Amino acid sequence: MTSKVVSLREAVARHVPDGASIALGCALEPAIPFAFAHELIRQRRMGLELIGPISDIAFDQLIGAGCVARVSAAWVGNVSAGLAHAYRRAMEQGVPRRIEVRDHSNFSIAQALLAGALGAPYLPTRTLLGSDIPRANGTFREATDPFSGERVLLIPAITPDVAVIAVQRADEDGNAHLWGPWGVTQEAALAAKSVLVLADEIVERAVIASDPNRTIVPGTKVTAVVRQPGACHPSPLQGRYRRDHEFFHEYHNATRSLAGFEAWIAEWVTGVADRDAYLRKLGARWEALRESGKPAFEVRF
Amino acid sequence: MTSKVVSLREAVARHVPDGASIALGCALEPAIPFAFAHELIRQRRMGLELIGPISDIAFDQLIGAGCVARVSAAWVGNVSAGLAHAYRRAMEQGVPRRIEVRDHSNFSIAQALLAGALGAPYLPTRTLLGSDIPRANGTFREATDPFSGERVLLIPAITPDVAVIAVQRADEDGNAHLWGPWGVTQEAALAAKSVLVLADEIVERAVIASDPNRTIVPGTKVTAVVRQPGACHPSPLQGRYRRDHEFFHEYHNATRSLAGFEAWIAEWVTGVADRDAYLRKLGARWEALRESGKPAFEVRF
Amino acid sequence: MVAQAAREIRDGERVFVGLRLPLIAFVVAKRTHAPNAVGLFELGVVRDAPAAELLYTMGDNPNVAGAVWCARTIDLMGLLQRGDVDAGFIGGAEVDVHGNLNTTAIGSDRTHPTVQLPGSGGGADIASLAHRLIVIMPHDKRRLRASVDFITSPGHGTGGDWRARVGLPRGGPSVLITTLGVFRFVDGSAVLDSYHPGASVDRIREATGWSLRVAPTVRETDAPSEEVLAIIRQYDPHGFWTRRGE
Amino acid sequence: MVAQAAREIRDGERVFVGLRLPLIAFVVAKRTHAPNAVGLFELGVVRDAPAAELLYTMGDNPNVAGAVWCARTIDLMGLLQRGDVDAGFIGGAEVDVHGNLNTTAIGSDRTHPTVQLPGSGGGADIASLAHRLIVIMPHDKRRLRASVDFITSPGHGTGGDWRARVGLPRGGPSVLITTLGVFRFVDGSAVLDSYHPGASVDRIREATGWSLRVAPTVRETDAPSEEVLAIIRQYDPHGFWTRRGE
Question: Omega of the bond prior to A160 within 30 degrees of 0, cis?
């Protein structure tokens, strides 16, 4: 196999065109590939569709930076701090531009991606009946379950152009181990046309093959692998580093105004060359977040 | 929590009534709980519905022993040796009794159990269109995908009364670690009304909680836990013991005639008190199958 | 509010916990009257012991370490849809007298909102599918409204058998706990059951956007025990979640 | 037959391998012209290196140790239904001229069969959903029949655009490899492409239950190279799979 390892800059440049639909932040609060979102902003990607359940502030940053045309998500905010100011400005004032929103719940987005992963056209569900979300979303259909005669909502498959997933380790072919919560990561990766893996470390094939149940996506689905330590800060990565709660709260306070948002992006995104520079800028704060966790009890194959 | 640990005899006596629908052998060729099938035969359970993808010879034994009223499966045979003689006798001659068959494919049974696990009424698929299986099965429906106008087959959910799963280790509450192929085990367990866990060893909660991604089913779904080393012989259990290929071939040859089948059951099932006695009877042959495998590379939580 | 929420968790129940106050309510319940309750977190985590330290999100590493199951969102949502989840907690920006919640947007036009809220997350799913929904809200006339601008999480709709009519399989809000009192739902409408120490029926009527119905048995809410207060202080010593007037 | 099957695997392809001969064909292909082929096993295993020893079933421990992915059947079947699987192998008890396969039952009444066969397993799914289906059969007049008693795995139905008409998204048999020769499918019907060394068109006509069509370019099948024969002997030294006249 030829190695699929590229730099983060190359991964965005080669594999994410303007207008792409991107699944991102699919493990919910942890393992959000902020490094990738920031590189999208540095390379000024435009017209993106963002797909994901919660995203914490990654979607807010991309929306505020003007990269986004559409959001298909269950929740766009700042989990521990409150509302997402850039998302508010876009929706309430069209600043920096209007975006289209396809409202979801966590279950409906999970089912849409699962349908994509299964190659099924849709999944039938009882959730959201009576909610205004189906009307706002516009892509669902109500139907009758032909077996019981009861009402169901049909959630059509979502097949993102790109799924970006952050993991603890992967080999050069993209076989990737993720531990901790998976959220909708596996469904997003299997549903996507292309998968980009951000690995905290690149390991030998033998490490992956020693524990194939840990693999979240096989290399055969993966287009490119990026070695990027610390790719998820300020979100956590299980057994590697903790969530930087204060960073979320600082962002919340700093981005209340448009000028504040722009200053924040200039400081933390466009003002740093890459993720390594960002981690150096964090300095001791970053070091303090690192942890090594407790070992999983042995298994043998 | 009160311990859910019971003997295999108690698990069958208390939790599997005549007429129950039982998902069994859900990891396909490995981890088939033969010990459980044999206890069903010893306790003369009747009118069972067997649900599973392949089952290797476990279903054949239960059918031949007269325990079965219906089989919902993709394949009933002897994987490395050929046809299943008891299944043939039941279908071709009604010996020892007629059984009803609901033909499936591996994908349709997987989807039926996944629908059950999701609480969805059915899943739509493109598989089996043009096959005679849907007509023979009788529970599927053809429909039109309202999004594309294309034909789909709707596979209704299956929710077994009991799922019996064999795993390497579980705690007393039934939180269970299975490694190696999962097949449709997790879907079956989550879809079932009751889950019975056969664990090669019972471990402390801390072992399970050290690696929660390894958990195939949480204790909250589990009714009873049985400590039963060697529960899967002659099928393999990853990292514990290998498949006893010869045993399958010997069974194939021994059970060609009804008398041969009855002799085989008398020798290996009703003629032994329990699984421990069965393993003692295997003796050195059993010891030779045991292996310890190679350790999975460390992960830390 | 936390203490009251904890009381709503029964021993042995499987509870969709959610974040913020419900998380602390789960800790309190586990350590007092409901030691066998199991917590389900929609990102894919099941715990039967609370995390060792204060959580800011359900995905914080300490909520995963020591879990008994760490899986996928769809697995947890499947349990919820199957009917395997006894109770769930959610809050919202607005709630109406039938327990319908809005966490999506304030304003009449979804595409041009006055205030864009974060959205459903898993809230609408819990509201749709749990056997029992426990709603927690700061009490404010702008939050307890006669009708909400957008039904993110369906409550009892317009009351009566509305949930069955729209196809929901079960559930609906059983209780609304606010910073001032506790409402129970009778035929799908909120009825004031108790007022917290320091509050009163009149003050609650004043702060409620719908025409208040009061249970004939209305009384003061039981004050939290010293034990419960100590657990809350121990778990959230700096009051990150509990000092926000909640 | 194994050598010919191996030739049907192209380098870099994702192949649903199945058991028995296809497994050895995969080993041969990997070690010769298709080093980057990836093997998918429906119980939930993906390997890019063949197992270290002879397998009797896809679930044998050595097929799992060293795999790059060990997951669930539904994950692998999802890849198949999505169209991510290039080719799959299956065999059957009976095949007709359109490549429809019966592995369910011999006889006209499914509920009272003359011979009860094991059933589909994943065969019907591979036949329905893979981009290309490679069929392997012992050559026998009772097996290559004008029509089969039960279509377990759909081939080209009645020929022409039948697959599209019944709603199958793609695929169908591209080749039928028997112990005597190789058929290719033209407009959904089998046409003899080559006869193995020692066989002949006449012998094949004699042993085939349908009216034989022969390609104008029909020729003798290329004999397997010494390298290929050596790999087969090394992998299955006692001929467990390869000595059954297959």
Answer: no
Average pLDDT on D151-163 reads: 97
Average pLDDT over residues B85-107: 98
CB–CB of B109/B116 below 8 Å? no
Active site residue C226: no
Task: Tell me A207's DSSP state.
Answer: H
Task: Report chain B residues whose CB lies below 8 A from the CB of D163.
Answer: 130
In a domain, C245, yes or no: no
| Rounded Cα distance, B207 and B99, in Å | 43
Report whether pLDDT(C225) > 80: yes
User: CB-CB: which of D48, D75, D83 is closest to A190?
Assistant: D75
Please tell me the pTM assigned to this model: 0.98
How far apart are the CA of B190 and the nearest CA of chain C, in angstroms? 7
Give the length of chain D: 246
D45 near B CB under 8 A: yes
Please report which confidence band the pLDDT of residue C83 belongs to, taking 50, 70 and 90 as the band edges: very high
Which tokens belong to B136? 């023979």
The residue ranges of chain A whose pLDDT is under 70 are 1
Total domain count for chain C? 1
**Cα–Cα distance measured from residue B235 to residue A153, given in angstroms and rounded to the nearest whole number:** 42
Evaluate whether residue C97 is within a structural domain. Answer: yes
**Which chain B residue shows the shortest CA-CA distance from D75?**
B183
Domains and their CATH numbers in chain B? 8-104+162-289 (3.40.1080.10), 123-156 (no CATH)
Q: How far apart are CA B192 and CA B178, in angstroms?
A: 17
Residue C225, chain A, CB below 8 Å: the answer is: no
Q: In this predicted model, what pLDDT tens digit does every residue of B45-90 receive, in sequence order? A: 999 999 999 989 999 999 999 999 999 999 999 999 999 999 999 9
Does the complex come out with an ipTM higher than 0.90? yes
User: For residue C60, what is the nearest residue in chain B, using CA coordinates?
Assistant: B301
D243 touches chain B (CB under 8 A): no
| Residue D227 lies inside a defined structural domain of this protein | yes
The answer to the question of residue C241 being in a domain is no
Touching A (3+ Cβ pairs <8 A), the chains are B, C, D
Matching residue, tokens 């998302």: A87
Q: Which residues of B touch D115 (CB under 8 A)?
A: 88, 92
Tell me which residue range forms the domain holding C127: 2-235
